[in-house]
């Protein structure tokens, strides 16, 4: 696996009971300047990663007991 550069990282982190739920999207590029995007599952930071997390009281969605997003 070759290193990739993070071009964009966004999403939300919600707390459901005692558990945190991450829904993160990323755009990454390789050394040939090809871009790749999609859900961000995991990564290893080799040099440095600058990530800003903003806390808000707004709720991006509410979860019903059955796990479906409330519209």
Report low-confidence residues grouped into runs of 5 or more. Answer: none
Q: Helix/strand/pairing class, anyone? A: mainly beta
Shape verdict:
elongated
Task: Give the C-alpha Rg.
Answer: 15 Å
What is the helix content? under 10%
Head-to-tail CA distance between termini? 39 Å
E-strand count: 3
What topology, given as strand order, has the largest sheet?
Answer: 1-2-3
The whole-number mean of residue pLDDT values reads 84
How much of the residues is beta strand, in percent? 35-45%
Helix-strand sequence: EEE
Individual helix count = 0
Largest sheet: 3 strands, antiparallel
Tell me what the structure shows:
The protein has strands at residues 5-16, 19-29, 35-39. By secondary structure, it is an all-beta fold. A hairpin with a 5-residue loop joins β2 (19-29) and β3 (35-39). The relative contact order is 0.22. The mean pLDDT is 84.
């Amino acid at each position: 696996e070759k290193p990739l550069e993070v071009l964009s990282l966004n999403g939300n982190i919600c707390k459901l009971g005692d558990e945190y739920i991450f829904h993160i999207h990323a755009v990454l590029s390789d050394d040939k300047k090809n871009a790749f995007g999609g859900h961000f599952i995991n990564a290893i930071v080799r040099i440095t990663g600058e990530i800003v997390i903003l806390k808000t009281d707004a709720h991006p969605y509410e979860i019903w007991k059955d796990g479906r997003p409330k519209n």
